[in-house]
């Protein structure tokens, strides 16, 4: 049999074949699907129209409903969407519905999926959100879909998929201090451009990845979509396996690419030469070294999202700001409630991360969620309402993404965001003494 | 629909889904009639210049039926609200050298509007205020001002879904549901 990439291997099993190759189109069986609050009503509407209100869903355990975008708001439409989700969850007996205002509430879907134990190696997962690719960090083929495809999969457990070609991204060596996965992916986006991987999978490999923690791997896969990729995927390592074990899972061994598998392109990155990177306004591929824009005055710093609001990001941020004061309004939004709880539990020199941030003058959101990453309704915590210059650990800086269309948003790692918050101007974290 | 002729709305490259439909309006339910109408009125509300000249705010319909855009049209979010907004506003066809994957897929699955790839399309050659003609049988785009005929990529594997009018209709034709 001809050699296959990880993507081809997973999709072959889901298509019920021994072998598939890039370019073929197959009906594939899905393992799991989630929908979040802005897309659930559309999915439910299409499901009811096409299958009928009384039709069963493909699985009660493997359809996960996650409110995260427009939550804890006074907006009527947004709250109406939550009512629709509740009704549907009840009627269909959905087992995993992480409802707002209950102890089950989690927060940002991509991190919530992992925490809930719904992300596993070798599976095919769908979500109504482009950053569903985050789950690739655990060797899962995960893709974002629209409402119609989601509704179809919800009723049938199937999706029509074209097997994508793969680009191999090989990252070797030890990462320097103050450089993180966010810098790597911003650097890569600069190389690929916002459509450099359209229709394709980014398959990451190399010694840097083998040594990398699970959340950093998530950051890398998360932004694969910013290059237009259909998915990002990494074969599991010890850290990602341990991460799932700590959640009570016993993950199966992850599939590896075959020797001689077909890649349409190979990109090599030497991690030891990496430096802190920013994406300048108004596109995630406007990469520059932080040193090229350092000194730029900023009006606001934002720490949050599925990309930059995980525990690792908060740890890195807190380590920088400990014992100091931020110079500009700085908003921090934990991606999930569990990250929030860990801020209180985890300590540096006897002081909790939460207290460190508070003492530094950082404003911490009362609830986890997407918050201002995508703007949100007026009044959303951290929303950019005027034409400010912002440094943010999120993943997109298209015009208007965080609220105001004239705002200038620079995307950075948590370390660079912390250094910038402390100085009030864009600052390379390596130059912070 | 074999020939589509009309005044094109000409847009640059990398028009993302936030410019087609800003994230805050994702709270609107696209599967209801009133939601669809609201979305139609909001089509392209995220463009820096706004959608004033594009959508007739009285009727909620677009002044154009064809979009000619630079590469990577529809990048960003997976929101199906974006193609629904364009379909509801009356856009029929969008031509670009390349599309973002999920946007392309959503156009096909919903049947809201037809995405056509014209690798050689250079929007700087398109004169505004001049009709363009798209021949869906020959798969060609004719730009009268530039006196140019551009090839459109064949639809390939998705042709069946397009012909059926969307994913559900296709699956029914195939006897899958
Ligand atoms: S945090 Fe931002 S990028 Fe992530 S799912 Fe929420 S809105 Fe999307």
What this model shows, in words?
The complex is a heterodimer of chains A (433) and B (177). Chain A is built from 15 helices and 20 strands. In chain A, helix 3 links the parallel strand 3 and strand 4. The longest helix of chain A has 17 residues. Chain B has 177 residues and is of the alpha/beta class. The model of chain B has no long low-confidence stretch (mean pLDDT 95). Chain B contains 6 helices and 10 strands. The chains are: A alpha/beta (433), B alpha/beta (177). The interface between A and B is large, with 54 and 43 residues. Iron/sulfur cluster binds next to helix 4 and helix 11 of chain A.
Largest interface: A-B, 54 and 43 residues
Q: In this structure, how is the largest beta sheet of chain B organized?
A: 4 strands, antiparallel
Helix fraction of chain A by DSSP (H/I, runs of at least 4): 25-40%
Spatial arrangement of strands, main beta sheet of chain B:
1-8-9-10
Which of globular, elongated, flat, extended, rod-shaped describes the shape of chain A? globular
* Percentage of residues in helical conformation of chain B: 25-40%
DSSP helix count of chain B?
Answer: 6
Q: What is the CA-based Rg of chain B, rounded?
A: 16 Å
The counted number of beta strands of chain A is: 20
Quote the distance from N terminus to C terminus of chain A.
57 Å
Percent of residues of chain B in beta strands?
A: 15-25%
Give the class of chain A from helix and strand content and strand pairing: alpha/beta
Q: What multimeric state do the chains show? A: heterodimer
Q: Overall pLDDT of chain B, averaged?
A: 95
Helix/strand class of chain B:
alpha/beta
- Main sheet summary of chain A: 5 strands, parallel
């Amino acid at each position: 049999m001809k050699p296959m990439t990880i993507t081809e291997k997973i999709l072959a099993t889901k298509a019920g074949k021994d072998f598939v190759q890039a370019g073929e189109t197959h009906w594939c069986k899905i393992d799991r699907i989630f929908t979040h609050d802005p897309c659930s009503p559309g999915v439910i509407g299409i499901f009811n129209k096409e299958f009928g209100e009384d039709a069963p869903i493909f699985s009660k355990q493997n359809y996960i409903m996650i409110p995260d975008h427009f939550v804890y708001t006074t907006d009527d439409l947004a709250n109406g969407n939550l009512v629709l989700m509740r009704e549907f969850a009840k009627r269909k007996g959905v087992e995993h519905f992480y409802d707002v205002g209950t102890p089950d509430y989690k927060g940002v879907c991509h991190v919530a999926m992992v925490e809930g134990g719904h992300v596993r190696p070798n599976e095919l997962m769908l979500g109504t959100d482009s950053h569903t690719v985050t789950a690739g960090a655990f060797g899962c083929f995960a893709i974002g879909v629209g409402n119609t495809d989601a509704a179809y999969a919800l009723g049938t457990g199937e999706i029509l998929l074209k097997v994508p070609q793969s680009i191999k991204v090989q990252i070797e060596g030890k990462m320097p201090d103050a450089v993180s996965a966010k810098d790597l992916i911003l650097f890569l986006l600069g190389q690929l451009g916002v459509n450099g991987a359209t229709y394709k999978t980014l398959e990451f490999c190399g010694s840097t990845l083998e040594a990398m923690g699970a959340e950093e791997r998530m950051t890398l896969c998360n932004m694969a979509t910013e290059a237009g990729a259909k998915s990002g995927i990494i074969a599991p390592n010890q850290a990602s396996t341990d991460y799932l074990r700590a959640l009570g899972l016993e993950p199966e061994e992850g599939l590896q690419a075959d020797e001689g598998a077909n890649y349409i392109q190979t990109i090599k990155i030497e991690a030891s030469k990496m430096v802190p990177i920013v994406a300048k306004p108004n596109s995630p591929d406007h990469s520059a070294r932080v040193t090229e824009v350092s000194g730029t005055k900023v009006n606001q710093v934002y720490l949050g999202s599925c990309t930059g609001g995980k525990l690792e990001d908060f740890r890195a941020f807190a380590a920088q700001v400990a014992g100091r004061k931020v110079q500009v309004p700085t908003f921090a939004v934990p991606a999930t409630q569990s990250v929030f709880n860990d801020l209180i539990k985890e300590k540096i020199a006897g002081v909790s991360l939460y207290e460190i941030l508070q003492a530094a003058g950082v404003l911490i959101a009362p609830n986890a969620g997407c918050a201002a990453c995508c703007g949100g309704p007026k009044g959303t915590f951290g929303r950019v309402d005027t034409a400010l210059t912002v440094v943010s650990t999120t993943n997109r800086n298209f015009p208007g993404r965080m609220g105001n269309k004239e705002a200038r948003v620079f995307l950075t790692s948590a370390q660079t965001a912390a250094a910038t918050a402390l100085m009030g101007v864009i600052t390379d974290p390596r130059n912070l003494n | 629909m074999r020939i589509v002729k009309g005044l094109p709305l000409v847009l640059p490259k990398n028009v993302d889904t936030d410019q087609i439909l800003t994230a805050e309006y994702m709270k609107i339910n696209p599967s209801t009639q009133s939601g669809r109408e609201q979305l139609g009125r909001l089509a392209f509300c995220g463009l820096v210049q706004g959608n004033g000249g594009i959508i007739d705010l009285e009727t909620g319909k677009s002044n154009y039926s064809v979009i000619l855009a630079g590469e990577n049209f529809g990048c960003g979010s997976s929101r199906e609200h974006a193609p629904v907004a364009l379909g509801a506003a009356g856009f029929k066809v969008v031509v670009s050298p390349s599309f973002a994957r999920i946007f392309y897929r959503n156009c096909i699955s919903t049947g809201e509007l037809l995405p056509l790839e014209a690798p050689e399309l250079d929007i700087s050659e398109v004169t505004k205020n001049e009709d363009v003609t798209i021949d869906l049988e020959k798969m060609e785009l004719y730009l009268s001002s530039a006196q140019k005929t551009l090839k459109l990529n064949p639809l390939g594997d998705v042709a069946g879904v397009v012909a059926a009018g969307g994913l559900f209709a296709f699956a029914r034709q195939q006897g899958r549901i």
